[in-house]
Amino acid sequence: MNTLIAQLRHRLVVSCQAYPGEPMRSPDTMRRVALAAAHGGAAGIRAQGLADISAIRGAVDLPLIGLWKDGDDDVFITPTLEHALSVARAGAHIVALDGTARPRPDGRTLADTIAAVHQLTGALVMADCSTLAEGIDAAAAGADLVGTTLSGYTAYTSKQPGPDLDLVARLASSVDVPVVAEGRIHTPAHAAQALRAGAWTVVVGTAITHPSTITGWFAAAMASVAPTPTNI
Ligand SMILES: CC(=O)N[C@H](C=O)[C@@H](O)[C@H](O)[C@H](O)COP(=O)(O)O
């Protein structure tokens, strides 16, 4: 077992991402968010974009999962081999890439892409999948970890309000590589359920590192309470 993967066993990975146009979209801000997550007990960090990956790698001494979201195509998470090599060279220990069966913009297969990342960089590969079949195929294609990241984000999967724990459980009993529970893990209880379902590690993003969304959750819950004469 690779030591980085062993370090993540039953531990929390915090995804530190801000989206285009958002106030927190800056490598230095994400570096600080990652440091805060490390301070709070995160065992690993997931980060998007070469500048963020590089800034976080220089500051936080934890396993780093890197990705590069690019393009308007269906396949947008580290869509090509060139993206994957850049992510590894920016400092990611683990390159997260689209692990679905959809055609990739550079025409390479998932297996070729994974083999080239291994050969040329020595980084590990996490395949972001949306179904059981994709996870099984990604493991067979050489992925070091398979994640449920894309469940609910492909045209052929439906988005549940919470995490896809059923997919976590079915993957965990079907593949020999560690399963990463990721996507809509919004509470500590969800994270514990994901471990019970067989996840090796759990990635939490929005619920820890995206204040705009979290603020929206609180505001919506409060807006749904109609004022009464006693609380006006
Ligand atoms: C589908 C997609 O693009 N997922 C991205 C992958 O890196 C991120 O936007 C998510 O924040 C991440 O997966 C963590 O999930 P959540 O924020 O739900 O805890």
TrEMBL record:
Transmembrane portions of the chain: none
Pathway assigned to this chain's UniProt record: Amino-sugar metabolism; N-acetylneuraminate degradation; D-fructose 6-phosphate from N-acetylneuraminate: step 3/5
Record-linked Pfam families: NanE (PF04131)
Organism superkingdom: Bacteria
Function field: Converts N-acetylmannosamine-6-phosphate (ManNAc-6-P) to N-acetylglucosamine-6-phosphate (GlcNAc-6-P).
Family per record: Belongs to the NanE family.
This protein's name: Putative N-acetylmannosamine-6-phosphate 2-epimerase
Lineage of the organism: Bacteria, Bacillati, Actinomycetota, Actinomycetes, Micromonosporales
Gene behind this protein: nanE
